[in-house]
Amino acid sequence: MRDYLRREAFIMRCFAALLKRNFKKYFTVGGITYWLGASGIYPAAKPTYFFCRYVDDLADGDRQLPDCYADFSDFTVRMKQLVEQPETKDLRDIELVLADAIKKLTRKSANTQVVKKELVAFLDSMLIDYDRRIHSSILSQQELDQLYDSSFSSVLQLTFIGTGTVLPREYITQLGLIQGKLYALQDLHEDLTAGIINLPGELITDIGLSLELLTKAPHCLQKHEAFDQWRSAELMLCYEYLQTLQSLEVDRKVRKIISILTDPLEVYLKEEMTLISESGLQLS
Q1: Which residue, 20, 122, 138, 174, is the most exposed by fewest CB within 10 angstroms?
Q2: Which residues contact 263 (CB under 8 A, 6 or more apart)?
């Protein structure tokens, strides 16, 4: 009972911190996920979402790493140990959440190795994300897309496992790229000032701006046609993927999950595409 109360209190604090940081962004998905888990409809939803959200926030520098871990690498090593060899005693708060997620996900999966594989893949992608923020690393377009796929798609795969539904990996990848690319575009300026470079190296070379200028004055991008063309191409690709996902012949549960995950992003996507069209820039 004590561990249960610790875990639930920790999740509530995490949720409150998310709402304080960006109410509009996290209220719908976080709130629905919390309710689905707390109501018992999809028990794995709550611990899985809040574990992954917490780790992502650590990687992005949006929250402090607890003192009990030497660094983020040490943290991910510990989490992967728990994935491979689950423990039940003397667990820290976030470890209790992970243990609960593993237990509830494996109940819904015919192959527990798939759950472990996706959790490890997610943790590995978060370590890459952390390292590139710390070093302000510049990735190619292919490397960025791979990072979006490995980080978002692993969480999505766990989401479908936890709800007892299935979506082919091809479409999970498309859904992951929609999330990765649109969140990156939404937060582009904020991320640049934090050292997170979500612009491909090819584009940075093309526009000829230094990394120092990009991180100190990200608004200077608006003056470059190459940036506008790249951004329009990213939006158009996301739009095409979204159209594909919305036209799939899938059962009601899968369609609802896709809708919950894409509805807020669809509003942003359509608004941005309208603005681009009105500006006279051709959508690629």
Answers
A1: 20
A2: 28
Asked if 238 and 178 touch (Cβ cutoff 8 Å), the reply is yes
Q: Is 76 exposed, middle or buried (0-12, 13-18, 19+ CB in 10 A)?
A: buried
Cα separation values, 3 from 87, 97, 146, 256, Å: 13, 10, 37, 33
Do 45 and 37 meet the contact criterion of CB atoms below 8 Å apart?
A: yes
9-58 pLDDT, tens digit per residue, is: 999 999 999 999 988 888 888 888 888 888 888 999 999 999 999 999 99
Could you tell me which of 103, 128, 147, 126 has the C-alpha nearest to residue 53? 126
Task: Name the region of 69 (left: φ>0; alpha: ψ -120 to 50; beta: rest).
Answer: beta
Choose the final residue of a domain: 91, 114, 135: 135
Please report whether residue 140 resides in a domain: no
In a domain, 221, yes or no: yes
Residues 131 and 149 in one domain: no
- Residue 282: the pLDDT is 56
The answer as to whether 214 is a domain residue is yes
**What's the predicted TM-score (pTM) here?**
0.90
Range of the domain at 8: 1-135
Find out whether 27 and 19 touch, Cβ atoms under 8 Å.
Answer: yes
Best CA proximity match to 174, nearest among 153, 199, 150, 200:
153
Distance CA 119, CA 121 (A): 5
Number of domains in the chain: 2
36 and 56 assigned to the same domain: yes
